[in-house]
Design goal:
The complex is a heterodimer.
Chain A lengths: L13 H5 L9 H6 L4 H31 L9 H37 L7 H20 L30 H29 L12 H33 L9 E2 L2 E2 L7 H34 L7 H14 L15 H29 L8 H24 L1 H7 L3 H31 L5 H27 L17 H34 L64
Antiparallel strand pairs in A: 1-2
Chain B lengths: L1 H22 L21 H30 L11 H24 L3 H31 L8 H32 L4 H31 L1
The chains are: A mainly alpha, B mainly alpha.
Subcellular location (chain A): Membrane
Family (chain A): Belongs to the heme-copper respiratory oxidase family.
Keywords (chain A): Electron transport, Heme, Iron, Membrane, Metal-binding, Respiratory chain, Transmembrane, Transmembrane helix, Transport
Chain lengths: 587, 219
């Protein structure tokens, strides 16, 4: 095929872009509460997600206090323990990570990085946030109903979740199911916006292959979420029918507390298929935005173009597609045809290929770069370590024969916290340190940031690394207390105490971070428009923080890709995307 | 899950092909040449938005149908539901609704206000009649003892018709807004976009209903 000039790809007509009518409210409520400005909506998402995330953090400390010092505190009873584990998992995965990465970073960065004035459907975008807030409030309400919140596990497995005796079966479980439905409806509204904005509202010159990888990551994650969340919605709606209306979609014939249940013939396995058809892509819905963001952090702070940009884009796409055909690896112990097990183990291991390509490319981006060990960079490098560690233990669990004995042990807890909790959270922290100056116009404090990084990074290793060994020793997860169990050695008991102390220290470091966010908002050093000397469009806005409409009277025109760092012969070590090439006319 | 996977592979193949055509031989780091192109005028944000939403809705229906097939095989308790004759009548109503909105779309494009109004009202009326008809089918089934919880075949029938009905009700909200604007004196040109989205959405829901109806008839 003939070489094609980069600019021959299709563009939005400038006239199309200018047509976007923005609502400019005058009142405080219109500007900051019922706002249709994607940047304000992003902040609303971020604050709500952080608030509910803090609840989940406190729950995790309660869980850890019980595990580390089983007889010292009487804060939780066995039912509470299951409820806190359930709520911690569900909040962290759905209400914090998904909402913050897509609703928070997606809303803030997509229009700015694409060169758009706002999202394409601002009203829908506003509704999306209010649905999200409603879903959070419904979930929080479940703490206050009789019987408390759901204790059926974040995976919502029937028949457990519907059976009498499960904590929260009186109301908490129903509230969680309703909350999830509302969340999914809200997310669909937001997701439509993110996808259509990337496709339709890019400014002149911003071709697909000039988009920063952050946008690619969020875009693909949104596409996946739009296709995967319906699986959860179907599963949730059918569970609600089983719970309230007595249908038997998932509920088999059972005897509960000596009584015959009214259900018959339902299949719990059917639920597992639907749940994991959503659940596995969900891992990548969280991971892909993190992959995208970390690529931009590494390139900017190493002053070097990203290695293998096109490979990185295609790796994002391939990971996204493959993640839809690996779901049954979560069900190896549920029982399945051995050939299916083989098939799903194979697809699972194949995902390692594009993922490894990404890791190599990140490392090669750092190779001979002019590495600035700024706080965002520290978090980005921390992510690389954590992600590789968590990813490698995933290779263990992807193999059926290794997964079966390790299933339901602390090895699994260690694995998914490394790869899905700590790794994306490190990126989120890095991203906040990176973009906070654009959001507020002030820098976050560097010393506090470094303390925050080192305590968080090293602390999480103290927490999760030993869990792998505990898993090898056969320590089962989800247990309230181990008592005098013969096969659990004393070293595990000691280790549990160490982990708990580390978890408390890491949590305190997050308080430091919150203090930094608040203090720097008022007292932080002024950042200027482009403190990291970055190339992408959000750093080239007329005002910092950008006003409603993002750019001045005219939208920027893009002349180059997002990674022109340390270009030989250039005056400075970065060239913004808006600067024309030599000899090229400014359009 | 085969049905869901086939749908997803088709979608991903389309997406991949489109992306391939935009990225093959494109070297973003090089100095560009050539003139600035324009995006095809037919590809507007509302149209793309509708297409993305239809993909999401298709995912929802494909997964529900997958669950239907799997549940049918998994439990030995499946007893097929008799098909009320009223469903044929309802189907005819939905076809008429779709045709009327298609007519309205044509009228809006050519600026024929009177015909647009008739098409809009007829389309909406047929759809409301369809929803009421589906309610009547539920009532008939209940009266004949085919309760929701009695059998998974019944439960799936109620679930599928409810999901389809809810999507149609969502469409009717947009339809009502369009009708309101029409009555407020908006010109056919200004309404054309909304009427077009309604018509396309109704055609989609007709196809979905056709598939669901065939599924119920054949199992």
């Amino acid at each position: 095929m003939a070489e094609r000039g980069h600019d021959s790809a299709s563009y939005a007509a400038a006239s199309d872009i200018e047509e976007m009518e923005l609502v400019h409210p005058k009142t405080f409520i219109g500007k900051y509460i019922w706002s249709q400005d994607a940047k304000v909506i992003a902040i609303q998402y971020a604050i709500t997600a952080t608030a509910i995330g803090l609840v989940a953090l406190v729950l995790s400390i309660l869980i850890r206090l019980q595990l580390g010092f089983p007889n010292a505190f009487s804060l939780v009873d066995p039912s509470n323990y299951l409820q806190y584990v359930t709520m911690h998992g569900m909040i962290m995965v759905v209400y914090l990570l998904t909402a913050l990465l897509l609703g928070g970073f997606g809303n803030y960065l997509i229009p700015l990085m694409c060169g758009a004035r706002d999202m394409v459907f601002p009203y829908l975008n506003m509704l999306s946030y209010w649905f999200y807030l409603a879903s959070v409030l419904i979930l929080v309400a479940s703490f206050f109903v009789p019987g408390g919140p759901s204790g059926g596990g974040w995976t919502l497995y029937p028949p457990q979740v519907i059976s009498q005796g499960t904590p929260g079966v009186d109301g908490g479980i129903l509230l969680m199911l309703v909350s999830l439905s509302v969340f999914i409806i809200g997310f669909t509204m937001g997701g439509l916006n993110y996808v259509v904005t990337v496709l339709q509202a890019r400014t002149r010159g911003m071709t697909l292959m000039r988009l920063p990888l952050t946008v690619w990551g969020i875009f693909m994650a949104t596409v996946m979420a739009l296709l995967a969340f319906p699986a959860l919605l179907v599963a949730v709606l059918m569970t609600i029918c089983d719970l309230l209306l007595g249908t038997s979609f998932f509920m088999p014939e059972m005897q509960t507390l000596g009584e015959q249940s009214s259900h018959e013939g339902g299949s719990p396995l059917l639920f597992q298929h639907l749940f994991w058809f959503f659940g596995h892509p969900e891992v990548y819905i969280v991971a892909l935005p993190a992959f995208g963001i970390v690529s931009d952090l590494l390139a900017t702070h190493a002053r070097k173009n990203i290695f293998g940009y096109r490979m990185m884009v295609w790796a994002i796409i391939i990971i996204g597609v493959l993640s839809f055909i690996v779901w049954a690896h979560h069900m190896f112990v549920s029982g399945m045809n051995p050939y299916f097990g083989f098939l799903f183990a194979t697809t699972t291991l194949i995902i390692a290929v594009p993922t490894a390509i990404k890791v190599y490319n990140w490392v090669l981006t750092l190779w001979r770069g002019n590495i600035h060990l700024s706080v965002p960079m520290l978090f980005a490098i921390g992510f690389l370590f954590t992600f590789v560690n968590g990813g490698l233990s995933g290779l263990f669990l992807g193999n059926v024969t290794v997964d079966v004995p390790l299933s339901d042990t602390y090895f699994v807890v260690g694995h998914f916290h490394m790869v899905m909790a700590v790794a994306p959270i490190l990126v989120i922290f890095g991203a906040i340190y990176h973009w906070y100056p654009k959001v507020t116009g002030r820098m976050l404090d560097d010393r506090l940031g470094k303390v925050h990084f080192w305590v968080t990074f090293l602390g999480t290793y103290v927490i999760y690394f030993p869990m792998h060994f505990m898993g090898f020793a056969g320590v089962p997860r989800r247990y309230y207390a181990y008592g005098e169990t013969a096969f659990i050695p004393d070293s595990v008991v000691t280790m549990n105490s160490v982990i708990t102390v580390a978890a408390i220290i890491v949590s305190l470091a997050q308080v430091l971070f919150l203090f930094n966010l608040a203090w720097s908002y008022f007292r932080g050093r002024e950042s200027g428009p482009n403190p990291w000397q970055a190339t992408t469009l959000e750093w080239q806005t007329e005002h910092t923080p950008p006003r409603h409409g993002n750019f001045g009277d005219e939208l920027p025109v893009v002349h180059r890709w997002a990674y022109d760092y340390s270009v030989p012969g250039a005056e400075r070590d970065f060239i913004p995307q808006t600067v024309p090439h030599e000899g090229e006319e400014r359009r | 899950m085969i049905i869901s996977l086939v749908f997803l592979s088709l979608l991903m193949a389309l997406f991949g092909g489109w992306l391939f055509s935009h990225s093959i031989n494109v070297r973003p780091w090089e100095v560009p040449g050539g003139a600035l192109g324009e995006r095809p005028a037919a590809v507007t944000a509302p149209r793309v938005g509708l297409a993305v939403f239809l993909a999401v809705a298709t995912s929802l229906f494909a997964l529900t149908i997958s669950a239907y097939m799997m549940r049918m095989e998994m439990g030995a308790d499946w007893r097929s539901l008799p098909t009320p004759g009223l469903l044929w009548f309802n189907t005819a109503l939905l076809v008429l609704g779709s045709l009327a909105l298609q007519r309205a779309w044509g009228a809006a494009r050519h600026g024929r206000r009177g015909e647009l109004g008739i098409g809009l009202i007829a389309g909406g009326a047929c759809s409301i009649a369809f929803v009421l008809g589906q309610g009547l089918v539920w009532w008939q089934l209940e009266a004949a003892g085919h309760y929701l919880a009695a059998n998974p075949a019944n439960a799936f029938f109620y679930l599928l018709t409810a999901l389809h009905g809810l999507h149609l009700l969502g469409g009717l909200v947009v339809w009502a807004r369009t009708l309101f604007r029409f009555r407020g004196g908006a010109t056919p040109e200004r309404l054309c976009g909304s009427v077009e989205l309604c018509a396309l959405y109704w055609h989609y829901l007709l196809v979905v209903w056709g598939i669901l109806f065939m599924l119920v008839l054949s199992t």
